[in-house]
Predict the structure.
Amino acid sequence: MDTNRDDFVIAIRSAFLKKGTQQRFSLIALILVSILFLVLGSFNFKAVDYLKKTLKEIVYRASFIASGPEHVIKKNYSIISSHFELYDKKKKDTAELNSLRSKDLSQKILTLENIKYKKLIDDYLIKENETYAKVLIDKQSPFLRSVIINKGSKNKIKLGMIILDQNYLVGKVVEVNYFTSRVLLISDINSKIPVSLQPGDIQAIMSGKGAQSGVLQYTKDKNLINNDKETLVLTSGAGGLFKSGIPIGIIKKEENILDNNEKIVNFYKDFSQLKYVKVVSFTKEKLTDESSKIATQELDNEIDKINQAKETINILLKQKKIAEEIRIEIEEEINFLKDQNIKLQNKLLSAESAINQNKRIVEEAQFIKWNDLYGKECKKTFYNNLHKVGTEEYKNCVLSKGLLNN
Amino acid sequence: MNKINKSNIFDTFYRYTPIALLFISVLNETDFNNLGLKYFSFNFSYILIFYYTLKKNETIGYGLIFTAGLFNDVVVGIPIGVSSLLYLLLCGAAAYLRNITLRPSLIKDWIFFLLTILFINSISFLVLTFIFSYEINYLDQIINILFTFLFYVLFVFIFNFIDKIIIGRRYAG
C-alpha cells in the first residue's frame, strides 16, 4: 500500500515539478502563474489589466493575420455561390422591389409623423456619434459570442455603444481598447435585451440562444402572442440601453402557434457573415423652443409635400385607370364596327352578282326577241360580209339594231 | 550536403508542426470548439496537447502551451489564465500517465484522456460559473466532451501517420 502511494507521489512530482529535457519551465510554476493571473484579474489588478490590454492588441492583430487564408477561401466560396444564386435572387429582388416601391411613400409619411410625435413627448433620439468599423475576428465560443472590431478609444468608441449592420441590431460594445473593441453579439447567452413585440406592443426580455437566434424570457403574458401571424421583435428602449424601434428579428407563425414557454426569435442578420458594422450612440435632441418650432414646421411642410405628392400620384393612377377603361371600350367598338363592315361588304357583293345575273337574263330575252326581227340584217351570207350566227359580234349587232329601231 | 539539408528541413518541420498547429487552431477563426452546429463540437487543442505531451514530449514546450492558452483566452473572450490553466493541467495529466506507463496502450490512454477532460472541463465550469458568473450550456459541454473523447482515436491515427511519413522520409533521405 505504501509502495503504491510512494509511486503515485513520485509520478506526480516528476510530472509537475521536474523540467523535461526540452522544457524551460516546470509545469507547477506555469500553473501557479495562470492561477495568479486569474486571481489578480478577478480583482481588476492594474498591472494585469495593462498586460491584458497589450496582449489583446497583439492577439487581435495576429488572429486577423492568421485568419487571412481562411478569409480568402470564405470570400471566394461566397462569390461562387452568389453567382449560382444570381438569377433566382434577381427575380426575387425584382418582385420585392416592386412591392416595396409602392409601400415607400406611406412609410415615409409614417416615419415623419412618428418623429414629430416623439419630439412632442421628448423621446426622440438622434445619432450622436456614428463610426464604421471592420470586423477583425469573428471567433465564436460557447461562452461568449462576440466579435472584435478595428476601432477603439482612439476613434471615440465608448462602452455600451450600439452596433448595427445596415439598420439591424447586432450587439453592443463591452470592451474598449486603444485600437480595438469587443462587441457582445445579441446571440450571446449573456446578452439580455429589452424588446417589444409587434403587433400587440408586448414587452419582454430577449436573451441569446448561442446560435443565429434568441429566446424570449420574462414575457408578461405568453398567451398574448399566440396569434397566427409573424411577430416582429424590436428594441423597446426600456431602461435607456437601446434606442427604441431598432429591428432585431421575427418570431415565425409556427412558433407562435406552439404553446411552449420559449419563443425563438430568428434574427434578421446572419452574424457569421459580418464584415463591416456601424457603431452608433444616440442622444436626445436638444432644441431650443424656437428651433424646435422651426423643426416641427419643417417636418409638417415635408409631410404636406409628401402627402401632396401621394395625392397627385393617386389621381394620376386613377386617370390612368379610367383611360385604360376607355381604351378598352373603344377597342371593343372598333372590333364591332369592323365585323359590321365585313358583313355589309359581303351583302354588297352578293347583291352585285344578283344584278349582273338579272342583267344577263334581260339581255338574253331581248336578244331572243330581236333575233327573229333583225337577225337577217346581221347574219352572214355568201353575198355579204356580216357576222356569223352564234358569235358575240352577231349578238351585239342584233341588240344594237333592236335598240335603234325601238 | 543535399541530404543533410533535406534532413534538417524535415527535422524542423517535425519539431515545430505541433506547436504551429496549436497556435493556428487558437488564432484561426474556424474553431472546432464551436462550428455553429447544434450537436457537434470538439476541442482540437485538448487532443493535440494531450497526444504530444504524452507521446512526443520534446516537440511541445510548456511555456508555449501557456502562451497559447493566454492567446485563446483573449480570442475567445474568457478571463485571462483559464485556458492556460486547463492546458497545463492537461499536460500534467499526460506527463503523469507517461511516468506511470510501462507498456503503452491506446485504450488506456483513451480512457485516461476521458477522465482528464472531464476533470478539466469541470474545473473550467466551476471557475467560469462561480467566480466569473458566466452562463454555460450543460448540453454543449457534454457534447463537446463526448466528441473530443471520440475524436482522440482518430487524431492519434492521423498524427501517427504524419509521423511515419516524416520519419520514414528522414531515414530514407
